[in-house]
Specification:
Blueprint lengths: L1 H63 L11 H20 L5 H4 L4 H13 L7 H27 L10 H8 L2 H22 L6 H30 L8 H27 L2 H23 L8 H23 L23 E2 L2 E2 L20 H4 L6 E3 L12 E3 L7
């Protein structure tokens, strides 16, 4: 009897194993559903952020071209842009709680695509027919490539979904791959900061690489904070774990320092260069951080990883083409240049500008600069009249600046 019951017991276990296997496709479909929700939230957030920045830019430009004495923060357009900006940031923030980090970060290309289209339609920038092929065809090709890259990212993105509980985040934080990654990143960051501050190596790659290293920690902490908040809303309270507040403080600190370096870069380089190079560097470093901390690509096959990498490369190329043919910024100097007057002190003292530099005043929002408004930003040219010297004992300055009205 015992020998006969052995085969029966083995046969009874087969349906159970089959039932366990049948559960896996349901889990995969649910994971893809979460990926789609996170991707849609990220796309929505970046679109709204782009519209918000361009609304605020439009408010500044309209005030600068009119005699309205109001400040920009007293206009409805600027406050509407601020509201949309907060709404977009909330959308991007919540997207990290649903989809893997390596999937959400590259979707910031949507903001570049929207800024390129809004720069032509919303800001109503002028262009000549002969300049269309030279400027806008590459931009439209770049938008198409960025859209194709975004589709590949969503389709072949990592499918790892882990509950952002305090235990899981702490376990990832003390894992040896992430500790080794943090050690390498701290060393690289300190070296770049030394060359930037002490050796005056203010190259755009150096500054934006500092931004990318800080940004990788920002997105890692943002996913942890957003994930723990969502888990707490679902009923499993995670806000009583100390790791939540550690991640929250790190998120705020890295975001502030990241904004500081971005502000310094905007004073030295054009916004189109910052958008393209910053997107490539920040996306690459952030994906590496997500793969190290959250193990996004664990269990993924080679085909999905290669197609995801191809989507990133296509998105990089698209962003590069969008920002490649942007016009160079024209510095605005509302005062007479002291370099043009012989015998006068130079306008720069040890590299620090004496006159105000408003080159980056309207550099946010659309990736186009404001070269089409000469009637607003044409600097006044003061006539310089040379006079004869007086008596021998009296020294008269060789140049005299005459006041003149705006009509002259």
């Amino acid at each position: 009897m015992e020998g006969g019951n052995g085969p029966n017991l083995q046969l009874q276990q087969l349906p159970l194993a089959t039932a366990a296997v049948s559960v896996q496709p349901h889990t995969d479909s649910f994971s893809y559903k979460e990926n789609l929700i996170g991707a849609l939230l990220a796309i929505f957030g970046h679109l709204v952020i782009s519209i918000a920045l361009n609304l605020q830019k439009y408010s500044h430009i309209r005030l600068a071209g009119s005699k309205d004495p109001r400040a920009y923060f007293r206009t409805k357009t600027w406050w509407c842009g601020l509201f949309l900006l907060v709404l977009g940031e909330l959308g991007v923030f919540s997207s990290y709680a649903f989809a893997p980090l390596s999937l959400i970060v590259p979707l910031s290309a949507v903001s570049v695509i929207a800024s390129a289209i809004i720069g032509i339609i919303f800001i109503k920038e002028k262009w000549k027919p002969k300049d269309f092929l030279r400027r806008y065809v590459l931009s439209f090709v770049g938008c198409g490539l960025a859209i194709v890259g975004t589709y590949l990212l969503i389709t072949f993105g990592p499918n790892s979904h882990e509950k952002m509980t305090g235990e899981n985040i702490t376990r990832h934080l003390v894992s040896w791959p992430f500790l080794l990654y943090m050690l390498v990143e701290i060393i690289i960051f300190c070296l770049l900061l030394y060359f930037y501050k002490e050796k005056n190596a203010n190259y755009i790659v150096v500054i934006l690489l500092l931004v990318a290293l800080l940004g990788s920690m920002t997105v890692v902490t943002v996913k942890a904070v957003a994930g723990m908040i969502v888990v707490s809303i679902q009923g499993n309270l995670q806000l009583d774990y100390p790791i939540f507040y550690i991640m929250l403080v790190c998120m705020i600190a890295t975001a502030i320092f990241q904004a500081t370096f971005l502000s310094q870069a905007s004073q030295l380089y054009d916004s189109s260069q910052i958008a393209s190079i910053g997107y490539i560097l920040s996306t690459t470093v952030a994906i590496t951080a997500g793969a190290t901390f959250y193990l996004d690509f664990t269990g993924e096959d080679v085909l999905h990883i290669c197609m995801f990498a191809l989507g990133c490369l296509i998105a990089f190329l698209g962003v590069f083409l969008i920002t490649r043919n942007r016009k160079k910024s024209v510095p605005f100097e509302p005062y007479i240049s002291m370099d043009a007057m012989p015998g006068m002190q130079n306008m720069h003292d040890k590299g620090i500008a004496v006159q105000p530099d408003l080159k980056a005043s309207f550099s946010y929002g659309a990736l186009e600069n404001n070269d089409n408004m000469p009637e607003i930003y044409t600097p006044a040219t003061l006539p310089i009249v040379q006079e004869q010297h007086g008596s021998k004992g009296v020294s008269v300055p060789p140049y005299r600046v005459l006041e003149h009205s705006k009509k002259e």
